[in-house]
Amino acid sequence: MNRWKIALLVTILIVTTIGLSSAVLAAATPVELVPICSALYGDVFGVPNTEPLGPCQWDMALINASESGSYQYATGEGVTVGMIDSGVDFNHPDVAPNLNEDLSCSFIFDDTPTANPAEIANGDCSNKAAVQDLSGHGTHTASTVAAPVNGVGIAGIAPEATIVGLKACTEAGFCFADSVAAALRYAGDQGIDIVNLSLFADPYLYYCKSEAEQKAILKELEAAARYARQRGVLVVASAGNEQADLQHPGLDTTSPDWPPETAEERYVKNNCRVAPAELPGVMTVSATGPIGIPGYDLWIADYSSVGMSRVDVTAPGGDYFQATGTAQDAVLGAVPFDSQIWAMFDPLEAVFPGITVIEQGAGYVYLNGTSMSSPHAAGVAALVKQMHPNWGPGAVKAAVQRSAQHLDCPPDWEPLDEDDERERCYGDGGRTSFFGHGLVDAQAASQE
């Protein structure tokens, strides 16, 4: 399993209980997948768009990112969204039409650990081949933001926004702080409107100000985010998949995650920060599953980190098997065939039908995580920015929060297991520790 921590549950289940590593099976076709989606979600969510896989996009229907909803008001036209991630697939038909190749750039350096040599560009933006997504993660998040309405696959929240691939994460899923900081500064220099960071900056999960090295790295990330923000960039970030309460942090067994086997178990306090989720000015996003499915009362995704004054809004991140008992409870997005994620998930098709699908020669995979929720919020922010091009990042962020659908705390919340640090959900008056100001709403935001 790589560092993205996507679908850890499903991977462990398969590896440990059914030994599927030897299974080989082609992905589903739309003829096979769409009836599954329609049966699971049709009566609750309807179909948000006319794209071939639209019936499988419960996430878009949940936040009113649809042809009958937000598309009537805003589509992201004229807005640039930088994906600080693992790059993008320059050839995927549900990403390439909205990709600005000229601005795209790789910030993987000669000394970046775990880098594939093909990813290294040292910030030389003329090396476009280095931006190609070898992981699949960046392509998936990009398609959530801005997959076009073009008769192929899925539709994004802002289907006419421009995507910029800013590679700061390696094929192996490590996103080291120097690469993240360089990408943030570049976004500021280029006047990109919004950046999405579905990551935490390695090698530390928590950066503690009491430790000199960690404090120095955190200061560099803070400075880079401030630089971008001062130049008009709204920074959007995932809250994390650690079941943590960022307001009341506890056990950290992850840091440092590089070099290998150097992590030390430690208890962290509020002088320690997850970056970029806890950087000043960032819009931080927790994750929900398919709220509205009868019997699904968890609401907060089983993995999602939370935190009062940390989480600003929530968005669909998916929640494998929690609502309908299927992989379709996750989020469907574009993924290159020659990527780590496709290679990892396609063999799972034998047990979880439709977890991968090929539509008109292009690949799509169901993934879940706050990595998937953050680009939903970034896409909604792009709609606001289109309607108000002169607004700065603070005003755009406020509009996304103001237009969100309020969510109360889940009834009778109990931690899910012994590792779940979300001991309780608290807050009222329009903000909770689990959901911030609420569930992003594309239609409402586009009318702000």
General description of the model:
- This protein has 448 residues and is an alpha/beta fold.
- 25% of the residues lie in helices and 13% in strands.
- The protein has helices spanning 8-18, 30-45, 58-62, 137-146, 177-190, 212-230, 340-345, 370-387, 393-402, 442-445, and strands at residues 80-85, 105-106, 162-167, 194-197, 206-208, 234-238, 251-252, 266-267, 272-274, 283-288, 313-316, 331-334, 356-359, 362-367.
- Strands 2-3-1-4-6-10-11 form a 7-stranded parallel beta sheet, sandwiched between helices. Strands 12-14-13 form a 3-stranded antiparallel beta sheet. Strands 5-9 form a two-stranded antiparallel ribbon.
- A hairpin with a 2-residue loop joins strand 13 and strand 14 (362-367).
- The model is unreliable at 1-24 (pLDDT under 50).
Structural class, by secondary structure, is alpha/beta
CA(first)-CA(last) distance: 41 Å
Give the overall shape, derived from the CA principal axes. Answer: globular
Major sheet characteristics: 7 strands, parallel
Total count of helical runs of at least 4 residues? 10
